[in-house]
Amino acid sequence: MRLPPRIKILEALSAIADGRIKALDDKEAEVISSDGQRTYRVYLDLARGLAYSDDNGTKYRGYIGYPIVAFMMLKGALPVDNELKDALRGIPWRRLNEQYKKYDVVIEVVKRELSRKGIDPSRVDRYIHEVVEKLRTIKLELIEQGAEKF
Known about the structure:
alpha+beta; five-stranded mixed beta sheet; UCP014422
């Protein structure tokens, strides 16, 4: 499974800030999209290195989607910056992604907003880097819905 685009780290942290992730048990969670229109199912077994999510990034693009990243953060497998998390509350990710069409542009828009809230853009970059480096050390295999647990 490939590493996610950098912006997905912030989307995951924002999902936690907004209370949009609900752990169903130790290995399963539901994550509601930023616009509230979708609910993603997540399965994560870190001991066996298995993961599943029905978000587009995971299913169709083959990277670790933000719902999986959010669940990993919630479980303590990835670092959480609480001040940054609080500043990310309420970001309309879907609208921004559709409006600007490029993750690099959206991340700059979000960093400007965070800067207005007192979060230095370099701190955002350091946090993303820290999470991505931790993700590099975690080997996950994508399982199909219906396989293993499902």
